[in-house]
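Supplementary notes (optional reading)

For those who missed the lab, this is the record we used. Protein: ERCC4 domain-containing protein. Length: 341 residues.
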Amino acid sequence: VLPAKRCPARLLPREPDPVPLSALLQADGGARVRAALQAANYSCVVESQAVPCSITWRRKSVLSQAEDGTEWTEEPNLLVVLGLEQFLSMVRGYKQEAQGCAQPKDTLRSFVSRVMEKMPGRVLALTVVEVEKYFRYLRAQSKKRLPRSAATGSQAEDRGGQRKKQVKDPGLEITRLDVEDALVDLQLHTHVQVSFFESWEELGEFATMFTKAVAEAPFKREQQNTGFSFYLENKWCRGVKVDHDGKGLFEVWKRQIQQFNRVSAEMAEAVVSAYPSPWLLVQAYSRCSSEQERENMLADIVVCRGAGVTATQRRVGPELSRRIYLHMTSHDPDFCLDVTG
């Protein structure tokens, strides 16, 4: 009896993956993130995770008939939601560390290192909500401080205390430049990106798009796996569809002209616009009275580049005109059209 073999996972681009949610639901907007995922028909599972406030993904794999049932495969992606106070504290830690503070501080880089130790092999992404709200609070406070006198200091403290409570920031005076410095340090050493969102609704939309990308990743990788290393996945390199009524032959003719060395799409467009088919071009050659006239027949065709004030014009020129003529009329299969390559 042969051992049962597992069938490969189905490549369904829109197959919903269970999204385990941990302490994220305990955050202020965690429920809104979960609601956005469920609205997109993604099933969510609440469970304890090694990293708090994180989202991971599992994919359903189909087993063979001998192994009745399904199997869940853990995806490497890990999305961590940092609290605003936690993020600002780590930025301040990096600022103090950069200023020469001897006491070790908690920074974004040290946080990523701890996460990777707990969950090695993960593709980590960080998100933060309401950072712009914090900066708006700082701008409002700085504008109010300017006209105030020292006599109104007590009233300023009361109002400032209310604003600090509103943004839940216990006085961490972090500037936008401080945040940028900490992000540059993080990206240079760990290559981890941080995404910022104005609201929890925006984070929910991002989590939904992220989940869709994770679900479609194997399907897209399979599409890109052509099996030929020399094949270029490019629009210009792919063939042109020709219908039964001949639609598409004009594009084939233009691609043929564009295959010449040093011929741009604009030059090919100009040539095929003047002579929409190879047969029309051959007929035009036959009406010429001399060999030199045939070689220079296309030289004066105008090639337009760009549009508006940046538009420029040039001509096809005698060199390309000669190469196209030889290509269309030569009977020698070994003839070199372009000795310069």
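If you only remember one thing from this example: The chain has two domains: 19-224, 249-329.
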